[in-house]
Amino acid sequence: MFKILQKTLSTGTVTVNYPAQPARISDRFRGRPSFDFEKWKDARPAAEVCPTGAISLSDKGDSRRVTVDYGLCVFCGLCAEASSDQAVHITQEFELATAERSNLVLTAEYALNADRIHDGLRRVDRHVVKAETDVESLGQKARGTIHKILGRSLAIREVDAGSCNGCELEIVALNNPIYDIERFGIHFVASPRHADMLLVSGPVTRNMELALLKTHRAMAEPKVVVAVGACGISGGIFGENYASLGGVDKVLPVDVYIPGCPPRPQALLQGILLALGRLAERLHNDRAG
Amino acid sequence: MMMQATSATTSAMFEALRQKLGSQVQSVRADREDEIYLLLSDPDIRPLTQHLRDEFGARLVTVFAEDRRAAKGVFFNYYVFEQKDSAPYLIVQAPVQSDSLEFPALSAQLPAVNWQEREIQDWFGLKAVGHPNPRRVALHDNWPDVYPLRKDFALETMLPPFEGERHIYRPALGEGVFQVPVGPVHAGIIEPGHFNFAVAGEPILYLQLRMFYTHKGTEKLFEKLPVHKAVFLAESISGDSSFSHGTAFCQAIERAANIEVPLRGLAMRTILLELERLCNHVGDIGAIATDVGFVIANAHASRLKEMMVTLNEQLTGSRLLRGMVCVGGVRRGWDQAQLDILLNAVDSFAREFQDLISLIDRSESTRDRLEQTGVLRPDKARDLGIVGVGGRASGVDLDVRRDHPYAAYSRYPFRVPVYQAGDVWHRMQVRIDEVNESIGIVRKAMADGLRREFRVPVPAIPSDRCALSAVEGWRGEIIHWIRTGPDNHLERCKIKDPSLNNWPALVEAVQGNIIADFPVINKSFNLSYSGTDR
Ligand code: SF4
Q1: CATH classification number, A33-124, choose in 3.10.20.90, 3.30.70.1450, 3.30.70.3270, 3.10.129.10
Q2: CA distance B45 to chain A (A)
Q3: pTM listed for this prediction
């Protein structure tokens, strides 16, 4: 007993104060790649190496359409290494959760010269890919929201609908003493009947489709669904095939998408807080209506 | 026999087997020193298996199939054998005719390949004749009759909606006996699978499993991706073993293409493989403690795990060690700052780990709950072909790092812990001992971690080469087998995660235990559903 106490005291507090303070992450962490579309001379090398097809090209005549989908990106950094024109950089940004799938997609159109090198940017559709809401204020509001609106705690039911278990490792880490998600009043629960939020990692396999639907059906209204990770958003590297249906939104309406492979715990937290906001809105509307 | 595979010894071996088995043995070839292929004229592997087991004490490592109808007019089954104290693998290649589509099952004699033979049935439509339980395993019962790994089945095939039962469970008969179905969605944050317990009051009579809920067409998908992208698929076979599976895959390509990874690359791989082991072992030790109510131990363990995961990120840019291993070595070298961080992290981990273990050792109640719980007897473990941590706690003295050295393991001697008791406590003990050994390996490997090149350029991968690669992941023996194809693609990629061997161990170990102890017994094996289901 004394030994346990001694160890506890000597360890002290280890919980980090994210999101009240910015995440302390290693300077080696690979976040999302950023693209300098004006500077980009040739998208082919990046598209060629990208393992999941997050960067894709379609050439028509003398024009090229480049699509970048952060919903497929696994933050591997190969595109930056392959692009000799310095137009692609790996950043440390990871707070990418969003309610709109289309917010994760960038497109650009280039004129091409005879060597199929970019010869002028014709159009770029650049959503602001950054935290949709200020995460810090999200965090501060979360406790209040949970207390006032939910009148208790936020209950999350997690379902692995076919993942490689990478996302589960990070979701489990949310409960460790470092991230300690319970400090916000957020709990993971066993029964979907007690849950307000369904957190789903994918890809959704043919064999998990029914179990996922049943779990969702068992939850009381109002409820929100969060798709976790590249596979949960889009099927990721597995895509769609005879055994995989692809992203969670192929099966259920999704409220928030959290990119990453897997999303780090802070990214999960940001997505969960964002979804909490949606849930609060829905509760509010239900009561008003 | 399998000691050395120079051409003289392969031809001597050929003669010896010829005398024993007659013309069934067609040819012997050594693709490389430690990888010998033996071609049979028919699919009856039983006499040869008997001979290899009786005369050489050989162990059947894995069984898998390949559709070679286009090139050779037949399917092939491959039986991978290893022999104690001998580095080479012997791979027996047996044709299965495309008109009969049948092969004699080994499972009646060797329960260890029960699931693997059924997987061949499900994925290739070849019948394992005489299999004691020939029902589907890798596709659920409600799937139509499709054979996804045949070459004439397209990956993108969209199957019609499924109807009917997924699986018919054996009924639980007898007075007071009833069934408790659990899953596929479980109470905690874990992967999906279905457990069907037959219980008489508290004690579990037997457990039936329904896995493959996370089957996502991985082996088929490997046939569609260029090799450099397939590395990322390998990292997604089982997220907690990203680096081990990634390394197993890259090694297979390197063997097929005769690529020699420089020592620094090998040493860095070794370090990262051991860091993956450290993370997962300490996490499991904490999880086992939680399941018997010792939550303080888990708080420390999960803090230590987080410390190592943070280190992973410092060394590779990814908390799961992803995007680091590549064909030809590793993608980035380490600078002095990273090596300092590594050294410091390992030192403080080593110190704190001792504290954690002494907390657990002092907890009489923890020991009480874990000893004699979930016992897997050594004879059962051997019969069922159990590998890795679960095997070593039950007397199965196997470790790929020592038995078939890869990366830089032969440079850093270490001890392989083996116990006979086979209970949860000893599965935890194996992990504790291995953590201590891993720390030693990492420290020794650091001396090799600074010098010279860490990666070589990769030439075009030659077509139609086979290669077997093995890695001792933190769970146990991982096997990848490939046949290369044109344009840097693969014709076939077989993946065997140790979980596939080890589920039957869980079934065996829970019998007679109370259902309340199931979680901790399950945790003590901690198998990968995704690694099993692919
Ligand atoms: S970082 Fe993302 S976009 Fe770039 S190559 Fe990797 S997966 Fe593709």
Answers
A1: 3.30.70.3270
A2: 32
A3: 0.94
